[in-house]
Specification:
14 helices; 18 strands; alpha/beta; elongated; single chain; 8-stranded mixed beta sheet
Length: 477
């Protein structure tokens, strides 16, 4: 099919200054994608880019229809309207219906309108019935309900341009979203990270580094936010989906991102070759979404013990096997820095595996790590479990109330950090978030690294835990 030429708008798609906007432009005009998601940081050019690309599509395809959706009309007025007013060429506007309609009719018969979700007054999305659109833009999708996304898919491409007026465009659902822990993360970001997005869906990450039009003074002003609230900076400036602010009810509520993690620019938590004591590993044997090994070192710093998590191995299928975890640690560190190995983990790993005789999961650790083991390498403590008493003890450790410092490499241990920061408590145990894999099999998304972390700390600090428990009992009397 031969499409009409693309007419320029006021938005620049110059790749050298706006590389992600250029990528967005080409993705939208390729005819390949039905859904295009722009996710990431503030001032990354998400809204301006989508709005500008949408104008080029509306110009390219006369008599096509489009709309932008936000949670409320006030938000459309105050945040979306200023962006739209900047990017719509006035010479392209034939007729405009103002507040509260916000409907633009363009010179070539195309149109654009505002549409609010109004979840509280229209929970069944009845207002959507009868809408006919070629392009729909869900703005700030983290503030919208999943049902709105599903309704948008239902109405997408429902308008048919009369043949005597123009060519039928390829329908596109545009989505702009900031880092969030809502349905959007699981639906788009997680799948993009895993490489499992469907072919018709394009995810484009955007940060301020992709926006060449920002004034240097604005970038400098953000450094104050970095000092006053480093968590917000990581989320909203760096576009980090794995970082979360505390919302209450966390299992390890004393975990502090700023205190317990070390970023790459600050040196991370490197493997210390000068430490000649054992390398420690702690295992969780769940296989979906991955099997877990956390590697750490112990260092005495004055009167305090430093527990240094320098690497996590969270291996998904087909590498979610105990021997592959061990081999990864060997090849990554122990070949270059030969050390003895001490292992901890889920006590159920010492149970017989059904159908495999006397075989135990930790037997695979023992056979694979054999060259690095000694008579006391097995430190699997069957008394250490993920329960409320160990939760309270480790929270005291994280709070600094005991002579122990826990530090975690931010770049090398993302799943561990996410687990510690976001896993909640529910009825005296950790709250498992369920998901479904490609084979429609349900699995627990979170908690695996948290469990391995608990087994490792609990075993290493078990004598301290016993004293803590006695002291706690005396205080309760």
């Amino acid at each position: 099919m031969i499409f009409p030429p693309i007419i320029n708008t006021q938005v620049s798609f110059e790749p050298s200054l706006f590389p992600k906007a250029a990528q967005l432009f080409h993705a939208a005009h390729s005819g390949r994608y039905r859904i295009i998601v722009c996710g990431g940081a503030i001032r990354g050019g998400k809204s301006y880019g989508v709005g500008g690309v949408l104008m080029t599509l509306l110009k390219r395809f006369p008599h096509s229809r489009s709309m932008v959706v936000r949670d409320t009309l006030p938000n459309l007025r105050t945040t979306t309207l200023p962006t739209v007013e900047k990017l719509i060429p006035q010479s392209f506007v034939k007729k405009f219906k103002g507040d509260p309609q916000f409907h633009w009719q363009f010179t070539n018969g195309s149109s654009f309108q505002f549409f609010s979700e109004q979840d509280s007054t229209d929970p069944e999305r009845k207002r959507w019935n009868g809408l006919e659109m070629n392009y729909i833009w869900l703005e700030q999708a983290e503030e919208l309900q999943r049902s709105t996304y599903e309704k948008a898919l239902e109405r997408l491409g429902s308008y048919f341009v009369p043949r005597h007026l123009g060519i039928q465009p390829h329908p596109i659902l545009f989505i702009t979203v900031n880092p969030t822990d809502t349905w959007v993360k699981e639906e788009f970001y997680d799948k993009w990270l895993e490489g499992t997005l469907p072919d018709e869906l394009c995810y484009i990450p955007m940060t301020i580094d992709d926006n060449g039009g920002l004034e240097p003074s604005f970038r400098q002003s953000l450094q104050m936010l970095r000092l006053t609230n480093p968590i917000k900076y990581k989320i909203f400036v760096e576009g980090r989906w794995d970082v979360r602010e505390k919302t209450g009810g966390e299992w390890y509520h004393e975990f502090d991102y700023g205190k317990h993690t070390v970023a790459k620019e600050h040196g991370g938590v490197p493997f210390l070759a000068e430490l000649m004591n054992d390398v420690h590993g702690t295992y969780d044997f769940n296989t979906t979404p991955y099997m877990t090994l956390l590697a750490f070192q112990l260092r005495q710093v004055g009167p305090r013990l430093q527990i240094r998590f320098f690497k996590e191995y969270c291996l998904a299928n087909p590498n979610n096997r105990t021997d592959r975890l061990c081999e990864a640690l060997i090849n990554g560190y122990l070949v270059k820095f030969p050390r003895s190995f001490t292992y901890h983990g889920d006590r159920q790993g010492e149970n017989r595996v059904e159908g495999e005789g006397n075989f135990r999961r930790f037997d695979r650790v023992r056979t694979t790590m054999a060259p690095y083991l000694h008579s006391k390498s097995n430190q699997v403590n069957k008394a250490v479990v993920v329960n409320m008493q160990f939760r309270d003890f480790i929270n005291d450790v994280l709070a600094g109330n005991l002579p122990v410092d826990v530090i975690i490499d931010e770049e090398a241990c993302p799943n561990l950090i996410r687990d510690l920061a976001t896993t909640k408590e529910a009825n005296g145990t950790i709250k498992k978030e369920m998901s479904t894999d490609a084979n429609k099999i349900k699995y627990e998304k979170n908690g695996h690294c948290l469990s391995a972390f608990t087994y490792g700390l609990g075993a290493v600090l078990y004598d301290m835990y016993q004293q803590w428990k006695k002291q706690r009992g005396r205080l309760a009397e």
